[in-house]
Structures are given as structure tokens and as C-alpha cells.
Amino acid sequence: MQRPRNLPCGHTFCTSCINGLKELGHVTCPNCRLVHVVPDAGQFPISYITEDFIRRLRGTAPASLLGKAGKDAGEPVPSLDMQPDVKGAECLSRAIRSMLQEQEEKVLATIRGCQELQVQLDHYQTSLGVWGEQQQHLEDRLQTLVDRSKGARLLVRQEEAQVEDKRKQVQQGEQQQHLMLRRLRSVTSRQEAFEAIDDADLLADQESQRTQAWQEMFPKVPTVATIRKMRVTSRAALKAVQTMEAALDAKNMEENTENAEGTVDTEGACGDDEAETSAPAAPPSTILTRLEALLAPTLEAEDLYLLMPPTRSLLEAGLVFATHTIEGEKRYAQVSLQDDCLYLHSLQDQRPPPRAAVVPIDEVVPVAPPCLVFLDLTWPDSPPCRVLVRLIPDTPLGRQFIWLCTGERGPCYANTTFFHLKYSGQPGERVSGGDYERNNGKGGSPLLPDLDKGDYRESRRAGAVHAVWRGDDRSNWNSNFGILIKDLEEEGDPVDTVFGEIEAGMEGVMEAAKQYYITDVVVKDCGVVLWAE
User: Fold this and answer.
1) Predicted pLDDT of residue 388
2) Which of 4, 261, 294, 523 could serve as a FRET partner for 471 with CA atoms 20 to 30 Å apart?
3) Left if phi > 0, otherwise alpha if psi is -120 to 50, otherwise beta: which for 328?
């Protein structure tokens, strides 16, 4: 096997595979599809950690690996599994051998630390090279903008020179008219009068034609349009730069404030044993983690609401997440854009990818109905079906339903199943689900007290979402819910605990109810539709 190498995106492949991916000086990662520029050395940094792991699995360093290292990278391969000299060690005491082994482990740990640091430095160096190329590209584009601005300024000067030339000619024409006026006023004979009239008439006609031609000449539409376009473009570019600088200054100020608040008085801590034991150790900071924090894009709830092009690009790349802290642990909910609607999916433990934009979940998720939530249903041999539920009016069950769709309080409807189908094929047919504990209707502890105190609606219509109890005990309110699939008969009693209704996807619910085993229907995902009217 050839030496493993790290791409800037973090994925690792062998040298041969990466060489096969090279195309016009770039490599596209097969996993995340990010495009990376091949470094000047011709190869990406070696993954010493992966290499060491493979060697330890094999127990020895293969000769083929050592042989190919010089070909691939032109550098020696540091060995972490050199065997001690057994013959020389036999004459040493057990204590000395133990000390040597302990020191060897220390040296090996130091070597691994050096290799990890080298990987980070290699990543950083590769990133700097990519940034340099990107900055050069931006500089070229900015230079193009500057060149166009200079061209527009040259047009202004040319237009200004032409206007000045015409202004002087108009001034000369006006002077000739004044002279002609004085001549008309100083006529003393009939012959002189006729000559003056003819000359004045000719001069006036010539000046009128010239004046009309110049009136139509200015302003020159292409020139003014070009100048206006460059003014608007230049001002927009400057405004964007000022806005970005202000945002970065605000972010730096916030980070400095957080760092100042998080600073510990080391002198006081040294004299206070209790303070030392109570303060948790901060996670180790590395080059890559600090770099990731510096490069993380900033995002506000207003940015999501306005859906400006930069935010839309992040959403299309799957790089927008909402964060929520539960018992000191952060969880993340992805925000997706589909058909110009923003969907906040249920919270997960998995961290977002590098350079993802994060916004607090409480800034975007409504605290109470009315609002729109979604359930993604799946069952065997069927594509997922998205069901939109309008929660209205504001009720305790509606608020609890929001929490269970997002997972803000821990439990979540995601990966639960439908557990009961009642009155199949009859008026009032309904399906039940929402038991996040047992998936059989016997679990689903409530997240809010006094769920029965809300102002619930009555309904006989299909699509009504209502409360479900354990057995016939109406006082046993919980997380379970029911969906009315078929209308109730008019003479029958209505469902009187309705807290929502299906707004879209009712056909999917009806199809799900036809499954032989209703427990095959799974809520694969759920969440909230942000700012849905």
C-alpha cells in the first residue's frame, strides 16, 4: 500500500488514489466533492497518524511501504516500532529495562506529537497556498474593476473636453449674434438694411441648426450609462467591504470579551485548592481548531430570514446549523432550503462540518403555536413522505409538539413509529404515534405539566391532529398523538382535543395507514418550518 495522504478537507487517501484524481493541477475529494489545488511540491501532506495506525495493525513496517516512500515523497519514513536490541538488553537489570521502556514510550509519544503537529502545519500550509491563489484571483477581479473605473473616468474626461469645446463654440456663436444685433441697430440705408437682414437670417439659421444638433448630441447615452454603472458598482463594492469590516470588528470584539471573561487568575488559583479542583480543564487548542474557529462564517437570524445570496449559498452547500445546549452538551440541527422554504431538522449529536455557519436555535424556532412543523414518514418499498402539520391555536400540546419535533428538551419524534390503527376502513379511522420511549403507546412521558388545560378545538374532519391517552384514561395526557384519516359521521361525537391539522402530505398519511404492519411506518426525521405563514 502506498503512503496515506491528507487532503485539506480532512479526508485521507493513498498516494496512488490521489495521483489518479489529479486533473489540471486540482484534486476533487471523492467524499465531500471539495476541489483542492495540488501543492507546489506535487503531493499533499503525509498522514503520519494513519500510517502509524496501519503499521501497528500489521505489527511491522512493510518493506514495500519503506521502498515507495522515497519515490512518492522523496523523504525518509520515521519508524515508531523499532525493535530493541534483544542481545544487548539481556545483560541489563529488570529495573533498567523498565526505565528504558518507560523512556521509549515517552519518546514515542513525543514523536507522535511532532507528527500530529506536522500534519496540522501541512494542512495550514496547504490552506495558505489555496488562499494565496484565491486572493490573487480576487485581486485580479478587483484590478479589473479598477481598470473599468479608470476607463469610466477617461470617458468622463473625454466627454468633459467635448462639452468644453462645444461650449466655446456656442459662446462664439452668441458673440456673433450680438455683433449682428448691433449691426441691425446701426443700419442707415435701405440697401444696408436688406443686406443686414439677409446676413442675420442666414446666421440665425446656422446657429439654430448647430444648437439643435448639439442639443441632441448630449448627453451621450452609452457614456452616461457606463459612468453610472461603474459608480453603482464601485459604491456597492466599498459598502460591502465596510460592512464586512464592521462585522469582523464586532466578531473580534465579542471574541476578545469572551476571552477576557474566561481568563482565570492564576495567582489566586494557585493558592485555592478548591478553585483548582472545581475548574474543568479546557480542551486542548490546536492549529486546526483555532483556524476553524477563525474561518467560521457569522450568521444572524435576520440573515436567514432575508435569504440574501451569501446565506443562500451556505444553505445550498448544507453549511447552516442551529445549536442548542442540553445539560452542558451542544447539539446541532441542520437548516435546509427546499422550494424557498427553510426547514430546521431535529437536533443531532454530530458536530457540523468545518466552516459551517451556526445560529442559536432559540433565535429561529417559535416558542409556541401558531407555526408549521413537519414529519418525514417512511415505510418499506416507499420513498419518504413529508407531512406538514399546522399547530393552531396556542396550546400546551402544541408547544410540546414543537419540542418533540426539534428535540430541544431531549426526547424527539425522530425514529419513532406509528403504533396503532383504529377503525380501519370506517368513518373516523385514525392512526396513533409519538411514543418516543416504547413505540407501543404505553410510554411517551409528558414534557409539560397540565397538558389538559389548553383551549383545544373540536373537529370531525380528516387531517385533525389530536391527543391520545393510554387506555381510556383521559387524565393520562402524554406525548402520543393521533391523526384522523377519515371524516367522522355528523351524528357522532367530534374529536375534542385537536391542537393541529395536516396542511400538506395527507395522501402520504393515508397510504401509510394501508401498511399491513402499522409499526413499519417510521418518523425518519422531523422539525420546524421557519417563518412559515
Assistant:
1) 97
2) 523
3) left
Does the model's pTM come out above 0.70? no
DSSP annotation of 252: H
Residues 50-73 as b/e (b if ≥16 CB within 10 A, e otherwise) read bbbebbeeeeebeeebeebbeebb
Contact 504, 387 (CB under 8 A): yes
User: Residue 111: what pLDDT?
Assistant: 87
Residue 519 has a pLDDT of: 95
Residues of the chain below pLDDT 70: 1, 41, 58-90, 240, 242-285, 288-298, 471-473, 533
CA 70, distance to chain mean position in Å, is 41
> In the structure grid, which three cell numbers stand for residue 109, read together?
509519544
Report the phi/psi class of residue 25: left, alpha or beta, with left for phi > 0 and alpha for psi in -120 to 50: left
Which residue type, as a one-letter code, is found at position 21? L
The kind and range of the H/E element at 497 are: strand 495-504
Report the alpha-carbon distance of residue 366 to residue 388 in Å, rounded.
16
What is the distance between the alpha carbons of residues 75 and 72, in angstroms, rounded to a whole number?
A: 8
Instruction: Write the single-letter amino acid at 393.
Output: P
Q: How many CB atoms lie within 10 A of CB 279?
A: 11
Closest CA to 105 of 88, 81, 122, 72: 81
Q: What is the pLDDT of residue 245?
A: 61
Q: What does the pLDDT read at residue 89?
A: 58
Measured distance CA(45)–CA(427) in Å, rounded: 67
Q: What is the pLDDT of residue 62?
A: 43
Bridge partners (DSSP) of residue 36 are 27
Write the DSSP assignment of 167-220 as a string of letters: HHHHHHHHHHHHHHHHHHHT--SHHHHHHHHHHHHHHHHHHHHHHHHHHHHSS-
Residue-wise pLDDT tens digits, 23-49: 777 888 888 777 788 887 678 888 888
Answer yes or no: are the C-beta atoms of 26 and 9 closer than 8 Å: no
Predicted pLDDT at 137: 81
In angstroms, rounded to a whole number, what is the distance separating the alpha carbons of residues 42 and 26? 10
Which residues is 422 bridged to in the sheet? 430
Residue type, 8: P
Phi, psi of 103 (to 5 degrees): -70, -35
Q: How far apart are CA 407 and CA 528, in angstroms?
A: 11
- What is the C-alpha separation between 532 and 500, in angstroms, rounded? 15
